[in-house]
Amino acid sequence: MALGRYRWFVVAVFFAFMLLHQTDKLLIGPLTTPIMETFGINEAQMGAVFTGALIVGAILYPVWGYLYDRFTRSKLLALASFIWGATTWLSAVAPNFRVFLVTRASTGIDDSSYPGLYSLISDYFPPQVRGKIYGLLEFAMPFGYMIGMALGLLLSGTIGWRGVFYMTGSLGILLSIIIFFGVREAPRGRSEPELADLERIRAYRFDWKIARDLFRKPSLRLLFIQGFFGVFPWNVITYWFFRYLEKERGYTPQEVFTTMVFAVLVLASGYFVGGAAGDALFKRTSRGRLIVSGSAVLLGAILLVITLSVPAEQRLLFAIMLSVNALFIPFAAPNVISTVFDITLPEVRSTAMSIQLFIESAGAALAPLMAGLIAVRASLHDAILLICVTAWVLCAIFFGVAAYLIPRDIATLREQLRQRAEAERTAVKV
Fold first, then answer.
1. For residue range 379-402, what is the model confidence (pLDDT) as tens digits?
2. Which of 304, 287, 288, 297 is nearest to 332 (CA)?
3. What is the CATH architecture assignment of 3-187+213-421?
């Protein structure tokens, strides 16, 4: 298969991985109520279940990042898919809450496996189009959320929440086989413009000095900081919005599904639209991706305040505003990934992305528990509004400062790659 066609096969396989993995990971949201009823627990205890998996995932991000930059990324991704399937099965057979808390936390092991996927894709596609590619891949995340929502709401009454977990866990094991035998490794840096015309590229591997230098990049430090706050809203909405609609706005399960399905479809399109907008503006200015990101999160905060102020009886207006809000929520995600790779060398990109996601997860791990605690004392409405708006306003500030600083960091990377290309050409001549 030609490289041009094969790279789209890789995208298709990774799209399936992200779609099904997110389905498995996020369907616990719509399954929250039956799980709570099975074990007889409250919101704070269920918040601990959510947070446990997030903490495990956060701790393992640096480990996965190092392994991806040191060894073959495609084989490690196959291992991650197998772990996903196995740990989901363990959650399904848990006999009591304590065991379920532990087994559900173990599902976080594979949740930190994405840095290698993003890094491998960066070696198949050049910088000018990565925003769209990452946006396309991340389209799978909310689409998986929607599939999880459908499975949770429609099948939990027939096969139970345990049966749903058996189903998604089996898919993880099947996909691990496809990745292991079907996805090939790509040379690190192959798609960079400075290296693209070289017949051979030296095999670059993880280097501790280069990894430590990541923290010397001003714009990358700001991306790390904003990442701590940036996923608070996503995790609060993911884990608590179903219960908010059911308990505080009086929706039936069917009404929850019909309200959310269109909003999630719009949100899914926002990943690709946001990535494409970032690519387009990036071609005009190196600040483009971060300008798009900062504008989107600020607009998202404003729209959320308006959306949650809609009276409960005005359900059509609420659904419309929720969908408009959903379009802008994911704009930053593909642009942050692309920006991290715009300023880091190929052999430490998994590490850089793992640091970004580690910091995000460290913050996100607190979000469901914080929301649960606030809900016990006030309401889920107050918890969602307070956490999301505060996080988005802070992120807008960090994106703005990073946009001011990033041109120098991009120029530094391009010069490093030009020097490598020249060294490779000189070595060939000798």
1. 888 899 999 999 999 999 999 999
2. 297
3. Up-down Bundle (1.20)
